[in-house]
Protein 1
Amino acid sequence: MAQNGTWRVYLAGGIHSDWRSRIADGVREAGLPVELLAPVTDHGASDDVGVNIMGAEDDKFWHDHKGAGVNAIRTQTLIRRADVVVVRFAEKYKQWNAAFDAGFAVALGKPVITLHPPEHDHALKEIDRAAMATAETPEQVVEVLRYAIAKD
Amino acid sequence: MAQNGTWRVYLAGGIHSDWRSRIADGVREAGLPVELLAPVTDHGASDDVGVNIMGAEDDKFWHDHKGAGVNAIRTQTLIRRADVVVVRFAEKYKQWNAAFDAGFAVALGKPVITLHPPEHDHALKEIDRAAMATAETPEQVVEVLRYAIAKD
Amino acid sequence: MAQNGTWRVYLAGGIHSDWRSRIADGVREAGLPVELLAPVTDHGASDDVGVNIMGAEDDKFWHDHKGAGVNAIRTQTLIRRADVVVVRFAEKYKQWNAAFDAGFAVALGKPVITLHPPEHDHALKEIDRAAMATAETPEQVVEVLRYAIAKD
Amino acid sequence: MAQNGTWRVYLAGGIHSDWRSRIADGVREAGLPVELLAPVTDHGASDDVGVNIMGAEDDKFWHDHKGAGVNAIRTQTLIRRADVVVVRFAEKYKQWNAAFDAGFAVALGKPVITLHPPEHDHALKEIDRAAMATAETPEQVVEVLRYAIAKD
Amino acid sequence: MAQNGTWRVYLAGGIHSDWRSRIADGVREAGLPVELLAPVTDHGASDDVGVNIMGAEDDKFWHDHKGAGVNAIRTQTLIRRADVVVVRFAEKYKQWNAAFDAGFAVALGKPVITLHPPEHDHALKEIDRAAMATAETPEQVVEVLRYAIAKD
Amino acid sequence: MAQNGTWRVYLAGGIHSDWRSRIADGVREAGLPVELLAPVTDHGASDDVGVNIMGAEDDKFWHDHKGAGVNAIRTQTLIRRADVVVVRFAEKYKQWNAAFDAGFAVALGKPVITLHPPEHDHALKEIDRAAMATAETPEQVVEVLRYAIAKD
Amino acid sequence: MAQNGTWRVYLAGGIHSDWRSRIADGVREAGLPVELLAPVTDHGASDDVGVNIMGAEDDKFWHDHKGAGVNAIRTQTLIRRADVVVVRFAEKYKQWNAAFDAGFAVALGKPVITLHPPEHDHALKEIDRAAMATAETPEQVVEVLRYAIAKD
Amino acid sequence: MAQNGTWRVYLAGGIHSDWRSRIADGVREAGLPVELLAPVTDHGASDDVGVNIMGAEDDKFWHDHKGAGVNAIRTQTLIRRADVVVVRFAEKYKQWNAAFDAGFAVALGKPVITLHPPEHDHALKEIDRAAMATAETPEQVVEVLRYAIAKD
């Protein structure tokens, strides 16, 4: 009876595994009306986008700064547009931007789903507390979305 | 002359009668441009969704907590998306989540229509006061929507 | 070059002349991508909608109160949805709800166009000051919309 | 036990009776922790403030417009600052700015108390519906404030 | 080193036990810089405040409606003003207004602490999930406040 | 995998060069899902729109004021609607309205891209600081948009 | 009778004349309850604050960028805190940051008073339109504040 | 001339060095009108606060979850209350909650100052980009505050 519309789901964080494509596959197989949104996941392109487009910088700090601005146009716009934000923390790397995105999303009132292995449970306790669900696998994220969006 | 667009109407509260399908029938028969939104109304699925997807809990409190998080992804997203929120209080059960949804909707500036039998009038006086209309039958809700959306 | 999209224009206030249909005609003739929104303009239906749907009231105050709630579902939803709000003050009647709608729209950051004869200029000075434009004829409103929406 | 703090109450509308001083008297006699806020009630000073300070205008419309801007600095600031807005509609005059203030306050989520004689009930039904209380006398307004602020 | 300022804590819900005075006692004994806010807890005064001040109603629904409006001036103002909202659900009564207040507070981004006996855990799971803490005794609430406000 | 949807990009500022059409060409050639929004760039039409539609003014200040109101209906609506705001400062002219639009956009949380020659760097340091990227050519703006919207 | 409280007034823009001290003198002489807020007006200190505190930059763009960030901490905080924002445009200089501050303030719903010589009228028409008053002298600004804040 | 008032500064992040007390010392020595706000920095008390007050949990995840809720009452309230948020990232530890706080603060429009050693520059580029200033030492933070708050 209900027609819950199309949902936009932003996939924030870790770029070093296939978790985004596994969610995309799962969403497609489940036939969910979901528009997946994502940051740029090409690491080198992401780091250098500022200087590639607007000119080189001698100082690495400003090299990074220019790139981070361009990436923020994308990420902040898509998080504001999203209905749900999934935040992935992988086994290694600091991934502070993933945590930043989570805080940004929560302050905007967006429901967050965290996705990480159990060994990060203690270090991520504040973010998991602010999230609506904590998953260990991309397939669990798909199941949460399936329920939230399409369960009768 | 006016074309008041499509309206999204969220149907909150009671899951133990056919009130949602009666509203759906009425809206369809009236040809209203309405997208009906709803929580999951399968009681068992709703209670257990957290542990079903993300693993069992020994403690019933956390069992419920996990499920409530997943349900909140759905309900808070749909209430934010709704133009109008209908809140149903049935004859029995505590239905505190229905009242919670009403408060949540009112604080967001959403017009609320309450739907309940007259014997609840006194107990629901604060919520009826915050609502724009109080109906006794689903058919009255349909008439309110018909007027609000489609009356010339 | 620019494609400024579809605009929603809410037509608030006076129901005793043909000003809404003149704006509708003008918008259509100009081929503007405008969705016109409006309150119910059938005076009797508007006054009695509450009791007609949800049961009679002995007290005229509550008779009016019930009807005003149902009308508010429509008017507040459409004002929130509108890009521009046109507020019409006719030659007579108090039309306090028109002024209320103007204040509501301004507080939400919506641009307001007032439409009234010059003899109301002094009495409407606060509302004209809060508006972006003050017109005397519906055709002037159409020209303002044409410029705002479709001028190259 | 509770200490509900100081409340700011903005008194909007009618300037042609002693209603504001009666509320001020009542509030003082009741010992309420209330800071009363008000627009300028000197009619001539209010009408001419723009040209008095910033130079004459040949055109009455702009004479009014300049003054309305200066008054809006005061009224909009004080309404935003208020906890409660009382809106007075007297026996005569159009008082569209009172209705505008009511709409502005409601859209900001401020509770409104309307104050008017019963003969305005029908014309003010939309605003009374949006208000939390409708009083006929300033003394009733004081009683409402006393209850809301200081009742144990 | 840190000076976390004065906190305003609104105590919503149940009026049939001494829980508010136990929190007040605990806060005072702990020397916390807390301003406690509360609804009117005199049941009869609360029910009848509308008609007591503004005149009798024949119809019980409108009798309640008038009173609920006056109470809402107080409760909505104080919830907006609060830093933290404690919501008490007692052993019996429907207490839908407590749940409504919780939803209202959560939508405004206020941290909520629920206070109820364990037998309500299942019925309150959605509200407990939206809360930051769930306590069983007023003394636990005091401890949570002491930590949040004054722990070094 | 990701489908980042259609983006609305508002092009604010300078009207004396072909920068808007160069961005439009670039966006079209890149096949970006972008809806470009713009103010009226016909200088004479923009200056005189108020008096052309609603009647002449003797005083140049009010002539300008009337026109600025009509233009603001367009510009404020489109900035609110935009995902990204590009602000162009050309070699000469004061262009205070471009800077005003930038401040307006930043306060609404919109990402801003500034576009100006390097000789303005010092005078525009506050606005460049508030922007996410600073470009010298329209082609660089297109590249930033291409990355933000369509990079895999 | 009314006690309109203390007002915070932010003085944005031009740093090359004594306009701020003339407003401060006028406010003091009038005995107004005003807290004046201002950016740093020491031009050299303002330009170099970033590098002075956090280390030199080879590139002038980043030198400016670092300083603009520190200044923005001050200006954005004070504009958000202000009840009224006065924006001064002097006879020369581009003063784009003044216009930016005006746009920022208007988007936040702050009433703006512009202060500039008449020869800027045309170039500032959009900002004057968004303002509540336009003054030519600091003494006129003081009179506007005196009326808005302290007129009976 | 200007009196910029008292500022509230929240000190987020790292608890394993004396950076907070160095800022407190610097602020006091500079005589700044600053109220410093902080999370609980007693690591054990912070981890166990949930179970200490509201009862033990068998499962470490829920042990952490309960504690994180209580801490969030404090941190979210204080970040909302702050004018400026300083976020410290120390040499080691994941400190995801520091990054979360930064994202939360930025989404609320709070100016952020990051404080970290240069070796974190690349990993923190997104957060440094969203910040208004990046410092290496607590003394630099004090200087930024001194300028922002108290420079003439």
Protein 2
Amino acid sequence: MKGGLAVFLHLAGMLDAPPVDLSWCFYAGEEVAREHNGLLHLWEARPDLLAADVAVLGEPTGGVVEAGCQGTLRVRVSLAGLRAHTARPHAGRNAIHRLAGILTAIDGFEVRRPVIDGCEYAEQMQVVSVEGGVAGNVVPDRATVVVNHRFAPDRTVAQAESAVRQLLEPFLEPGDHWELLNAAPAAPPALDDPVLSALVAASGDAPRAKLGWTDVAFFAERGVPAANFGPGDPLLAHTPGEHVGAAELAQVASVLDAVLRAEG
Amino acid sequence: MKGGLAVFLHLAGMLDAPPVDLSWCFYAGEEVAREHNGLLHLWEARPDLLAADVAVLGEPTGGVVEAGCQGTLRVRVSLAGLRAHTARPHAGRNAIHRLAGILTAIDGFEVRRPVIDGCEYAEQMQVVSVEGGVAGNVVPDRATVVVNHRFAPDRTVAQAESAVRQLLEPFLEPGDHWELLNAAPAAPPALDDPVLSALVAASGDAPRAKLGWTDVAFFAERGVPAANFGPGDPLLAHTPGEHVGAAELAQVASVLDAVLRAEG
């Protein structure tokens, strides 16, 4: 969100006397493991600085309000087998072969698309890693996948984990292991908030759902309505072709400026 | 084959004047990677010491002649995909999900059971390792399995590799990689050899096929008929319960002694 930071710095410099009580929060580590998130560090040290009626996150959204965010969780599923010599595999059970059912089920996951406050979310489920194997002549007794599930704001972490479990249950047996590795809750769109509603109007575009996870969820958890709004194409983020045009920076700055003045 | 070595040492000590021209060959590394195999080292240094009309390998066979041996090969199959954010997986392609077809096909491999010289072989195919994954929020663009195929003596390495390829072909696409990691040929039963035939008769049991790979193939490749015959249950080899009884050691020694005297 370097583009969003540029816009915020520009506005902070321009607005000598902001029309509303305004806090600019610049922090590190918003995309990496939760324990490195600067917003959490700030919250632990000075929660008073984060008191707010509403929050806007400068995530790349192409100058469109992206409402709420989907939650994300990762589970590690480890299947059991029984070792044997590969010349006599029927004396054992191949744990890697057992993955076939799980991979087929997840590949066939039917995307659930709940519409909340007019925004259509799209849940996803993907295997993000797989490992298994003992030796070149051994039927392996363990095979593991990590599954990443992205879930819509109408579900809690527990409900979302339960949905993954329900999909994979037919392929699990005693001796297998199930572990929730990490999870971050979703955030509802909160577009009934008057400031966010004004932001949508000023942006000139219909809002859409944020499909990734962002710190909007941090604010939502603390009762602060929040939305994503910044320059830059989210599909280009983290790619070699990542860029943002000057016109888009100016447009986003202008929209935020207008909303701040209207609220003043 | 510590039991077989014990029998050979016993006979070597007992037979001051062997009734036939006899070479005892004790070597290291018969079960590990081919480059460490002592028989190969000896062959490179002194092939004349391995000149023979027939060879008996002291592998654990429970005192039954196990004829020939199956071949073994390993192929690494690496599937391609396209990276994307797991919140927008349709922008990419999950290479791990693609494994489902391959695992299902191999798990459903129909065991081919050719009968050669009255011995029934049993081909096998097992995935022995799997790996893949980029990061917890990335649709992975690569997933790899290693497949171990055990094949009967009526097929060459090339024919056996082709059989694996044929089974997996429906799941392969341009951009995938196929690599033959290693292979060792099978050996035919060679029970028409008069000495091996006499060994079968003296053992008192019908011969059976050797399903694993052994150095019988080393001799077969060099035109020397060979068979596996030694004390010890092959299903116990390399397990914590590995053992061999004194009676079985004595029986195997007695059979070999009788065959040697009869040939003398």
